[in-house]
Amino acid sequence: MNDINTRGVIPGAYVTLIEKDSFPEASVDQSAVTDAVYASVTLLQQGVIGVIGDVSSSWTSLSALMTSTLEIPQCSFTASAVAFSDKTQYKYFFRTVPTQVIMADVMLAFAAKQGWSKVGVIYTDDPVGQQFCQHTIIQASNSNIQITRYQAFSQENPQQDAASSLYNVTTGGARVILVAATGNALTSIMLQAAEMGYMENDYVWLLIGDPTIDLQSAIDSPINSSTPIDFNSTYNGLFMFDTWLALYGYPPFDQFMDAWSGLDSKALAYSCMMVMAEGFSHTIANTTNHTHGLEQLRAGDLGQYMTPSAFNVGYVGPEGPMVFDSNGDVTTA
User: Fold this and answer.
1) Fewest CB atoms less than 10 Å from the CB: which of 20, 136, 308, 310?
2) CB-facing half-sphere around the CA of 213: CA atoms within 13 A
C-alpha cells in the first residue's frame, strides 16, 4: 500500500488498507461460516471501495456475492473455482490466479505453431471441462484452427464413456486431440486410447498437467487393462501443459521478485492491490472532472464502471502481463 501511495498511482488520493480476518478459527463448522459472513459485512460497512481476498474459493464466494450486489470490485489471488466466471452472480469479481481454462490458449497456440489446422476436443462433462471446450471453440478461429469434433464424457464413470467418446472424436477426422481432463478421468481416457490403437504415430495428444505417474501405476495394475501396454513405447505422442510459476530470466518477473523480497508476509495480495489501484486511476482519468471523480470513487458512485474490463491496465505481475477476459479470468496477452 505504501508503494501505491508513494508512487501516486491514484493522483490526489491517499489509499488506506483495512484488514479483516474472515477465518479466525481452525474449524470449518457453521460458526466459522457465520464468522466469515460477519467479517465481510463489517468490512463492507466501513465504506471500502474495493475488496481483496478471500483465502479460498469457498470463503471467497461468500464475500463475492455481496460485493457484486453492491457494485464493489473484488480481486482474488487464490480463488480458482470455475464458478466465479459466472458474471450473472459475480459481475464485479476478477482474479490474478489463472484457471485451467487458460491452458486452451496455450494448447491452441502450440498446435498453430506446429501447423496443425484441425483439432478434436475431449472433455469431462463438468463445469471445468465445459468451459474449457467452449473457450477452445471460441479461440480456435483466432489461431486459424478448425475444431473438427468435440465430445464430452462422464467425470463419474470415465471408464464407461471413454471408448465411445474416443471413437466419436476420431471418426470426425481428428488426429490432434486436446483432452480437458485430470486425475482418474485423464488416466482412463489415455488407457482406452492405447487399447483402441490411438497412440500410433498418426495421433498427437495435448494434455493438461503431467499424468505419467498415475498412468504408469494404472498400467502396472492388471485390472485396468485387458491388453498389456508398454509405457515407454506406447505413450510417445503426448504433449503436457502446466503452469510455470518461476519465470526467472524474464525481466518483469525478476524486477517484481526484487521488490517482493522486501515485503513482509502480509503482502501476498500485492498484484491484486496494484491492478485495482491502476484500474481506479484509469477510471478517474476518464471522468470530466478529476476532483469530482475522486469524490465519486470515495463515495462508491463509480461502481457501474468497475467490472473486470476496467482493470485491463497493462499491469505486469509475477506471472507476466495481467490481461482479463470478460469473465474476470486471466488470459494470454
Assistant:
1) 20
2) 4
Query: So what's the pLDDT on residue 265?
Result: 38
What would the grid cell of residue 55 be? 483465502
Residue 158 CA, chain-centre distance (Å), reads: 24
In tens, the pLDDT along 1-12 reads 888 999 999 999
The DSSP result for 38-101, as a single string, is HHHHHHHTTT-S-EE--SSHHHHHHHHHHHHHTT--EEESS---GGGG-TTT-TTEEESSPPGG
User: In the structure, what pLDDT confidence band is assigned to residue 25 with cuts at 50, 70 and 90?
Assistant: low
Q: What pLDDT digit, counting tens, does each position of 277-286 carry? A: 999 999 999 9
Determine the average pLDDT of the residues in 69-82. 88
CB neighbours (10 Å) of residue 307?
19
DSSP state of 325: -
Give the integer Cα–Cα distance in Å for 330 and 333. Answer: 9
Beta-strand relationship, 320-321 and 316-317? antiparallel
- Residue 308 C-alpha cell reads as 473486470
Neighbour count for residue 326 (Cβ, 10 Å): 11
Amino acid at 154: S
pLDDT of 267: 42
> CA-CA distance, 123 to 40, in Å (whole number)?
36
| DSSP-derived 3-state class of residue 119 | strand
| CA torsion, ordered 154, 160, 163, 164, to nearest 10 deg | -60
- Residue-level length of the chain: 333
3-state SS class at 239: strand
pLDDT in tens, 187-197: 999 999 998 99
pLDDT in tens, 284-325: 999 999 999 999 999 999 999 999 999 999 888 766 788 888
* Full DSSP string of 278-305: HHHHHHHHTSS-HHHHHHHHHHTTTGGG
